[in-house]
Amino acid sequence: MNISDRPAGKATRMRRAVMFASAALCAAALLFSQRAALSSEAPVAIAPPAVDEPASGAHTQTAVLAGGCFWGVQGVFQHVRGVTRVVSGYSGGEPGTANYDTVSGGRTGHAESVQITYDPGQITYGRLLQVYFSVAHDPTELNRQGPDHGTQYRSAIFAANATQMRVAQSYIAQLDKSRAFPAPIVTKTDSLKAFYPAEGYHQNYLTLHPDSPYIATYDLPKIENLKRMFPDLYREKPVLVTGLAQ
After folding, report:
1. Sign of CA dihedral 169, 173, 174, 179
2. Residue 119 in contact with residue 105, Cβ under 8 Å?
3. Where does the UniProt annotation place the signal sequence (predicted)?
């Protein structure tokens, strides 16, 4: 047997194991930092919609939007002035499949969504869409956001009425025509059939778990971008949802 072919001694094997472990940790740290850098990139500044909802005497309106994991999207809109309630949930599928375990399979037709209740006297539907497109998610990613893949993470607007549909479709056309983004917008517009609140442990997740690596990497930068890009809309204290069963 050649000297080089001899089995490594215990100390040598231990050193090699430590080296391999260190290399793996370095690679993981590099990947994490790269993802963090990507998630923290400055969002695209876009113009407000040319077409918006008309003024009305209503004090409350709702909007349902989907843009990846609902934790971050809910967290963003909870910091927007004029918004009174934001609930994480599911939309696009049947009521019997509106639960996290089933939706996560990607075959239900549901998208992780948020239902936003707002005062149209303080903020319009179009302005909500401006935040949605520029801060809350990347509207050019098809069936994914960041590390999350599947149709349940698609970019979708569920319009509650003809006015919301008209504003949404007009705004998408406006943004595409102006080439506001480096790639075409893939956001789909669908008529809202129903919204189903998610399980209680998903509500207020960003606020309750700021130290979660996922939240710190992918979602907290969105709050900072909201504060920086929309100082007139940003509110420091989030409006938290209450009253949903755990």
Report:
1. positive
2. no
3. 1-36
DSSP state letters, 62-112? EEEEEES-HHHHHHHHTTBTTEEEEEEEEESS-GGG-SHHHHTTT-SS-EE
Q: Cβ–Cβ contacts within 10 Å for residue 104, how many?
A: 15
Q: Can you give the residue ranges of every domain in the chain?
A: 8-39, 61-229
The CATH number of the structural domain formed by 61-229 is: 3.30.1060.10
- Look at the block and give the residue holding tokens 């003024």: 55
Phi and psi torsions of 89, nearest 5°: -175, -155
Residues with catalytic function: 69
Give the C-alpha separation, 89 to 74, whole Å: 10
* CA separation for the pair 169, 12 (Å, rounded): 65
Looking at residue 146, the DSSP 8-state letter turns out to be T
The pLDDT of residue 128: 98
Can you give the pLDDT at residue 245? 66
Alpha carbon 44 to chain centroid, angstroms: 15
Query: Helices 220-229 & 70-77, crossing angle to 10 degrees?
Result: 30
Element of type H or E holding 145: strand 144-145
- Residues 6+ away with beta carbon under 8 Å from 139: 67, 133, 155, 181, 185, 186, 187
Residue 152 has pLDDT above 70, yes or no: yes
